[in-house]
């Protein structure tokens, strides 16, 4: 998994009816874009996470 600051981390719901959680990557702590990442969720909560197999990175659009 590889990400840059500004990319989105999407954690998919694990059970029926559970919504996906979307966070913006604000800091890449690992080397060369690898986890862990510092993220900010849409509700303002911030966390450091190492995404699992139920997550994906959505890269920001190139300018």
TrEMBL record:
Boundaries of every DUF1918 domain copy: 1-57
SUPFAM superfamilies associated with the record: Cell growth inhibitor/plasmid maintenance toxic component
Stored Gene3D superfamilies: Domain of unknown function DUF1918 (2.30.30.440)
Classification via InterPro entries: DUF1918
Region (Disordered): 43-63
Highest taxon of the lineage: Bacteria
Record-given protein name: DUF1918 domain-containing protein
Organism: Streptomyces olivochromogenes
């Amino acid at each position: 998994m590889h990400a840059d600051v500004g990319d989105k981390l999407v954690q998919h719901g694990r059970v029926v009816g559970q919504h996906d959680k979307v966070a913006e990557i604000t800091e890449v702590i690992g080397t060369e874009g690898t986890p862990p990442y510092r993220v900010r969720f849409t509700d303002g909560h911030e966390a450091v996470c190492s995404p699992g197999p139920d997550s994906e990175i959505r890269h920001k659009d190139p300018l």
